Amino acid sequence: MNRRQRDANRRTAAALAAAARARVLALHTCENCGEKGGHWISTRGISFAALVTGQDDSEGFWTCPKLYGEDGRRLAA
């Protein structure tokens, strides 16, 4: 297999991965705004201790369109 074919395969794989991710996100409804898509970005997952106790100690932020203005800045709460 030559380099051109490998690069084409990598591009195809990246496109398929992006399409698969978009399809998964389209099935998810955001619990914050009610729109389709995953609007939660996790910066740190749940810890083992929280998993055992049933608590959710994950950290992250919402990226819902309703929380941001047209200039991309976060709206005041």
Describe this structure in words.
This protein is an alpha+beta fold and 77 residues long. Helices cover 40% and strands 12% of the residues. The chain has a two-stranded antiparallel sheet with strand order 1-2. The longest helix has 25 residues, at 3-27. The chain is extended and about 55 Å long. The protein starts with a helix and ends in a 15-residue tail after the last strand. The mean pLDDT is 84.
Write down the secondary-structure element order. Answer: HEHE
Query: Strand share of the residues?
Result: 5-15%
| Main pleated sheet | 2 strands, antiparallel
Secondary-structure content class:
alpha+beta
Uncertain ranges: none
Distance between the termini: 56 Å
Determine the mean pLDDT.
84
Level of helix content? Answer: 40-55%
Strand count = 2
- Note the total helix count: 2
**Overall 3D shape:** extended
Strands of the largest sheet, in order across it?
A: 1-2
Q: Whole-number radius of gyration? A: 18 Å
Q: In terms of quaternary structure, what is this? A: single chain
What's the short story on this structure?
With 77 residues, the protein is an alpha+beta fold. It has 2 helices and 2 strands. It has helices at 3-27, 48-53, and strands spanning 40-44, 59-62.
